[in-house]
Design brief:
- It is a single chain.
- The chain is α+β, with helices and mostly antiparallel strands.
- 40% of the residues lie in helices and 17% in strands.
- The protein has 2 domains: 64 residues, Ribosomal protein L11, N-terminal domain, CATH 3.30.1550.10; 86 residues, Arc Repressor Mutant, subunit A (Orthogonal Bundle), CATH 1.10.10.250.
- Helix 4 crosses helix 5 and helix 5 runs antiparallel to helix 6.
- The protein is elongated.
Amino acid sequence: MTSIVEALVPGGKANPGPPLGPALGPLGVNIKEVVEKINEKTRDYNGMQVPVKVIVDDKKNVEIEVGTPPTASLIMKELGIQKGSGNAGSEVVGNISISQVAKIARMKKEDVLSYDLKATMKEVMGTCVPMGVTVEGVEARDSQKALDQGKFDDLLAGEEW
């Protein structure tokens, strides 16, 4: 029987303690080895919480699937901030460029239901709203409208999804 352990771990810094150790221990796998593999696969997400799925089959073979961090975490990493605004709408904590929004949208490609880059970019911009992050110096909602109106089409030219 295959067992699956899902956890949210710090990128590149998972450890054998909770939540991984107690969940993997009863499965009889080498926890240290699994944690090392997870850290290797998540090191690019240093400082962010990363969803991982550890799949252990009957023969104790381990497969590790790494998801992408939450959109808010990716935005904070791009901006170099620790947290969003506690007073969104009146307090701005950062400004993100449209190219950074596109970069995050590409990273989230596998995890979203959108069918194209533009729609995923709008989702990323939507996450900026409650965080107090502006896009290209204006409120994120206004940037979403500008995206719909084609203002950033030159950036997206030739982009395949």
